[in-house]
């Protein structure tokens, strides 16, 4: 168990994350922390970007920063910690709709169990992504098919029907799927093509739909997994590719799959990205860097 005398804990709660039932019982979580000797300051988020501000405002004298929310809240807290420039440990009690990153870290979505993981005090380090100059991400930067639904699905729908809301919103995208011409450079290779989807990820699960093999992904190896999917020419190509993706077999001629530390994307025309499920405006060129072991997390 961690040395509780030293444990000044900032607890950030997104009160609107996840489904209506069950909502995070943050009072119970606070009681648990306090009963184990933690000195807790709790703050609720009130708007987008607030979690980052709260970390920067209240995080200076804390050694643990815990958040409850979904991938969006976690992303904002990580962005705050990266800017804080102080050695703090992150704790996460998932209460979002998809909680992709929590699944990769094997964190329980049962509130008390996740709180106990934090109280037990075992840490591991994980890589963090940097998209461009200042946009951090915990598990994914993606573009193309279905990524719009990750940030455009209304919160009210997510609250009522959970992850299915993303899937339904994504289906609206199908008639509009069109390829983007992209050139992708790593220190070792160049990939170029008309891609309908691309993802730079540090996760076992991409949008809760596409799964990567646990043996292939290490969240702290300084490398991203990168998947680029080309536009299939015929319905037969499309169905073969879908079968390959479902089998986690990425050798199909329409799929480029590789690992890299840093990767630069060159786009003919800008298109929006999704960063940990939140909207990011398009650019003509972006470098995505893996910041190795950048965050210490209780997991
Ligand atoms: N009080 C608030 N009112 C409205 N929006 C908020 C509030 N607090 C935080 N937000 C924003 O809500 C958005 C969604 O939060 P989050 O991603 O944590 O939950 P979720 O969407 O339910 O879960 P997931 O991303 O795992 O599906 C984020 O962009 C966050 O900044």
Automatic annotation (TrEMBL):
Question: What family is this?
Answer: Belongs to the diacylglycerol/lipid kinase family.
- Protein name per Swiss-Prot or TrEMBL: DAGKc domain-containing protein
Q: Which UniProt keywords apply?
A: ATP-binding, Kinase, Lipid biosynthesis, Lipid metabolism, Nucleotide-binding, Phospholipid biosynthesis, Phospholipid metabolism, Transferase
Under InterPro entries, the record lists: ATP-NAD_kinase_N, Diacylglycerol/lipid_kinase, Diacylglycerol_kinase_cat_dom, Lipid_Phosphate_FormReg, NAD/diacylglycerol_kinase_sf, YegS/DAGK_C
UniProt keyword annotation of Transcription regulation present = no
* Cofactor requirements of the protein: Mg(2+)
What Pfam family is a match for this entry? YegS_C
- PANTHER family named in the record: SPHINGOSINE KINASE, SPHINGOSINE KINASE RELATED PROTEIN
Could you tell me the Gene Ontology terms of the biological process aspect for this record?
phospholipid biosynthetic process
Q: What molecular function terms (GO) are annotated for this protein?
A: ATP binding; kinase activity
Q: Does the keyword Iron apply?
A: no
Start and end of every DAGKc domain? 4-134
Supply the PROSITE patterns for this chain: DAGK
Native source species: Herbinix hemicellulosilytica
């Amino acid at each position: 168990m961690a040395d509780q005398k030293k444990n000044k804990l900032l607890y950030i709660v997104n009160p609107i994350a996840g489904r209506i039932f069950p909502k995070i019982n943050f009072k119970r979580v606070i009681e648990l922390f306090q009963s184990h000797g933690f000195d807790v300051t709790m703050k609720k988020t009130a708007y987008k970007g607030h979690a980052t501000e709260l970390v920067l405002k209240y995080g200076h004298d804390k050694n643990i920063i815990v958040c409850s929310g979904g991938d969006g809240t976690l992303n904002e807290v990580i962005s705050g910690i990266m800017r804080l420039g102080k050695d703090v440990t992150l704790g996460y009690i998932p209460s979002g709709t998809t909680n992709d990153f929590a699944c990769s870290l094997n964190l329980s979505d049962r509130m008390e169990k996740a709180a106990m993981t934090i109280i037990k005090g075992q840490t591991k380090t994980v890589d963090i992504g940097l998209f461009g100059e200042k946009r951090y991400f915990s598990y994914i930067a993606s573009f193309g098919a279905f990524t719009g639904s990750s940030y455009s699905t209304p919160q009210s729908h997510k609250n009522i029907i959970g992850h299915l809301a993303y899937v339904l919103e994504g289906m609206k995208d199908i008639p509009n799927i069109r390829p983007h011409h992209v050139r992708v450079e790593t220190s070792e290779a160049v990939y170029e093509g008309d891609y309908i989807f691309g993802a730079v990820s540090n996760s076992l699960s991409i949008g809760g739909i596409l799964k990567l093999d646990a043996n292939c992904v290490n969240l702290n190896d300084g490398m991203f997994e990168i998947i680029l999917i080309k536009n299939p020419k015929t319905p037969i190509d499309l169905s073969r590719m879908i079968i390959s993706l479902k089998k986690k077999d990425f050798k199909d001629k329409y799929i480029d799959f590789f690992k890299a530390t840093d990767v630069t994307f060159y786009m003919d025309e800008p298109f929006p990205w999704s960063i940990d499920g939140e909207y990011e405006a398009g650019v003509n060129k972006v470098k995505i860097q893996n910041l190795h072991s950048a965050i210490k997390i209780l997991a």
